[in-house]
Amino acid sequence: MTPITEVEGRRLTLTNLDKVIHPATGTTKGEIVHYYAVTAGAILPHLRDRPVSFLRYPDGPGGQTFFTKNPPPGMPGWVRTAPVPRSDDPGARQVVVDDLASLVWAANLVVEFHTPQWRAPDPGVADRMVFDLDPGPPAGIEECREVALWLRDRLAEDGLDAYAKTSGSKGLHLLVPLTPTPSPRVSAYAKALAVAGEAALPRLVLHRMARSLRPGKVFVDHSQNAAAKTTATPYTLRARREPAVSAPVGWDEVEGGGELVFTIGDIAPRLARLGDLFAPLIAPERPGSLP
């Protein structure tokens, strides 16, 4: 029997809730939906007004995965969409997840949430900047920590505050709240900082994506500041062997040792203890201005 539930006055059909999505931990689809429901207060502010791209993995990380920006077939009419014109489709629209019912509906699809650095209806006007620190083996999280701390301090020299989160995979993401700034300007600044990082830490930092250069270094991916690009949303689950979460972390945790890995069972206790460490990105006291 297919369960039908009501969320904030919206009727939702939830399917295959007993299906195991993450075999390594036996995590079911029902547990994934529950995770998003109980962490809605944290994730929704980071989704609100940002057109969503979905990485869908309905049969788990070992099955078929596909990335989509288009609203999925069968989407309820009450789910909000926003215009996101593309060169190949001037009338394109994307889903905007800005309430609990929409979040639970999307969670039932089994997705990673990816969002741009701008809000609708202003595509290409960023209110945050991102750096994706991606280590090339044998480099790992310790090398990412070192690069993250260098970037934090360098950004501070320009009056910019940085906040860190795990990627949910093997690296770190740094986000910086900004006064609304055209994406090309943000992209240019971010690239210049990545180049400066490579000059300052040549044994460790790489600003180019070339695979042949990656071993043992941390690629500082600045490209996700382009208006057409997206980054894993804070608190999204990732399509990994275990149900890993892209989780905000404090700078004390970055400065410390050990792994930075969080799964769905870790997040509610962290939120109860620490609150949303990314709250300053939602309503920054001092959004930065690029020099």
UniProtKB/TrEMBL annotation:
DNA ligase D polymerase domain boundaries: 28-278
Organism expressing this protein natively: Streptomyces zhihengii
Single GO molecular function: DNA ligase (ATP) activity
Protein name: Non-homologous end-joining DNA ligase
Pfam families in the record: LigD_Prim-Pol
Key words of the record: Ligase
EC number: 6.5.1.1
Tagged with keyword Chloroplast: no
